[in-house]
Structures are given as structure tokens and as C-alpha cells.
């Protein structure tokens, strides 16, 4: 295993906008009829439930201060009174089996320094922007893609101490304001109960891949979504995960994939072993594939799909700076 600091961010190339994709989909609808119209409405067309998230959180949230402390970026590190961040690159294997992972070791002064933001400052389904775009909008010094809550209508979604959705469906991850993090069963509780217990953020994707320092059994067989498309998370894939080393000490990992010779991707077990090697006693898988992205100091750290092109996502986890 070779661990280094990333030397530069890959050049960002042009990407098809959602407007172009939507126009193409509309043409397809006209050609194929009603069934496709349903799929387009369900998986492509924006459905806005909250039009101004910042205003909604101001009206419904706690008094946690969203203003970051002044910090200093030096190469691949960031230091402030709020957070300490160190970015490194881990390379294993060689040839077509090479795997490239990007690691952010993060220590927080307070758990509420880790925040979430939604694409276009809106909450709903099919609302997307790239991780870089969302990070720039909120002034993030560090960000990774979130759980892509907007692809589905289920799950418990609590962000920045505010409840957005309460439809328990799967194994979730809860970040508490006191700094500890727990894997939990969404179907055995409610968003209000979690909020009352001090939960600051939740993620609804999974599965948990490390618990009590051990790789979880059966993680290669988990399906996150049972609706149309994207239900299987098996095989060697690009991945994003968050791990817990201690209270207020987290590690975020983005593994690139589908790029033989640069990074093949990893299985769920392979991701768990990476997290375990970094000292995580708990680790949780979040949205991967083309969504897997890490941004630091305004630059894309990883190389999504080996093409330097970000895919739109619903949400990010970030630290302001």
C-alpha cells in the first residue's frame, strides 16, 4: 500500500447538463408513450418540497453557528479552531488491479461543524447539482457526496438538526451533537425521537461495513433500493464511505473505479478493509458510482470514473472554511 498526498486535481472537463438530459428524455417520452412518462416523472423531473432550505433551517433549526472559523490551507491540509483536515492518497495493487483511494482524516472541535447541504438549496426528489457546485454555494473547504436522498422517497433525513423526511426503511447512520456516531435501524424509531436524543445529521444508504472494528458479514449481498434501477451495490465499484475513529474524529474515503490501470474500484468488503486499516471502528457506505466525489479547497480531489467529470447528486456533507 502506497500512501501519498495528492499532487493535483484532475482537470474538469465539460459535462452534459441536466437540462440537456431532460430534453433528451422528453423526446424519448414522446416516442415511447405513457410508461416512459411515468418513469421520467419519477426519476428525472424535479419535485420540490422545500424551495428555500436555508430559510427553512433558520425557522426550524437550533442555534448552532454555521459561520466557520478562520482557517489556513497548506497544500493538502486545513487547520482552524473548528476543524483539522488532512487529505492523502492510498494506492494498492498494480496494472488493471490497481485501486486508488482518497482519504480525508477529519477532527472536529464540535460535531455541528460537519454540516449538510442540498443541491440548489432545495429539498425534494430529482434535484441535483455536482458536489463541487454545492460546495461552492455554501463556502465549503471540504466536501464529499452524500446519500443521494433525492433518488428515493424513503429513509429518515435529518440534516443540520432539522427533520426533512421520516419514512424509515433501512439501516441508517446517525451523527449526534455530542460527537458520537451510531448505526441504527430506521424502522425501529422516528425522526422526532432521534432529534430529541440529540441527532444532528443522518444518512440513509448503507450498509454499515465495519462495526466494533470488525468487517460486517454479508455486506456483499445488501440491496439499498428495491425500486427501479440502482438497487445493486455489488462488485468492484467506485465508493464513498465515512468512518468513525473516535468522538469528533472521522475519516472519509472516496475510491475511484471503472478505470483499469488507474483504479478498478473495490467490493464492499474491500471498502470495509480500507476503512478498518485507517482505524475506523464504525464505517458506513454511502452513494457511490459516478457520484463518488471529494472536494477540497475548491478543487476536485479524485478523478470520477477516470474522466474528471462529476455526476449530479442531491446532497453533500461538508465543512465550511
TrEMBL record:
GO terms for molecular function: hydrolase activity, acting on glycosyl bonds. Residues 139-319 form the Phosphodiester glycosidase domain. InterPro entries: NAGPA (IPR018711), TAT_signal (IPR006311). Keywords: Glycosidase, Hydrolase. This is Phosphodiester glycosidase family protein.
Amino acid at each position: 500500500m502506497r500512501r501519498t498526498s495528492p499532487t493535483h486535481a484532475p482537470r474538469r472537463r465539460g459535462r452534459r447538463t441536466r437540462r440537456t438530459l431532460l430534453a433528451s428524455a422528453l423526446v424519448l417520452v414522446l416516442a415511447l408513450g405513457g410508461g416512459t412518462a411515468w418513469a421520467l416523472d419519477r426519476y428525472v423531473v424535479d419535485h420540490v418540497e422545500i424551495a428555500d432550505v436555508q430559510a427553512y433551517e433558520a425557522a426550524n433549526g437550533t442555534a448552532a453557528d454555521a459561520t466557520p472559523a478562520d482557517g489556513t490551507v497548506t497544500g493538502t491540509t486545513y487547520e482552524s479552531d473548528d476543524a483539522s483536515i488532512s487529505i492523502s492518497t492510498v494506492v494498492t495493487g498494480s496494472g488493471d488491479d490497481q485501486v486508488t483511494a482518497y482519504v480525508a482524516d477529519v477532527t472536529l472541535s464540535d460535531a455541528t461543524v460537519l454540516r449538510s447541504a442540498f443541491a440548489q438549496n432545495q429539498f425534494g426528489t430529482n434535484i441535483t447539482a455536482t458536489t463541487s457546485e454545492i460546495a461552492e454555494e455554501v463556502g465549503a473547504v471540504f466536501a464529499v457526496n452524500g446519500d443521494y436522498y433525492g433518488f428515493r422517497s424513503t429513509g429518515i433525513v435529518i440534516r443540520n438538526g432539522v427533520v426533512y423526511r421520516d419514512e424509515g426503511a433501512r439501516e441508517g447512520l446517525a451523527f449526534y451533537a455530542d460527537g458520537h456516531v451510531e448505526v441504527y435501524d430506521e424502522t425501529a424509531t422516528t425522526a422526532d425521537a432521534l432529534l430529541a436524543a440529540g441527532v444532528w445529521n443522518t444518512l440513509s444508504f448503507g450498509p454499515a461495513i465495519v462495526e466494533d472494528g470488525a468487517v460486517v458479514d454479508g455486506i456483499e449481498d445488501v440491496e439499498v433500493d428495491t425500486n427501479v434501477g440502482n438497487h445493486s451495490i455489488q462488485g468492484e465499484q467506485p465508493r464513498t464511505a465515512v468512518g468513525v475513529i473516535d468522538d469528533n474524529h472521522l475519516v472519509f474515503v472516496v475510491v475511484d473505479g471503472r478505470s483499469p490501470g488507474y483504479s478498478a474500484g473495490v467490493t464492499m468488503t474491500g471498502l470495509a478493509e480500507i476503512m478498518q486499516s485507517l482505524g475506523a471502528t464504525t464505517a458506513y457506505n454511502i452513494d457511490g458510482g459516478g457520484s463518488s466525489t471529494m472536494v477540497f479547497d475548491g478543487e476536485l480531489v479524485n478523478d470520477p470514473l477516470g474522466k474528471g467529470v462529476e455526476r449530479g447528486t442531491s446532497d453533500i456533507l461538508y465543512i465550511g472554511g
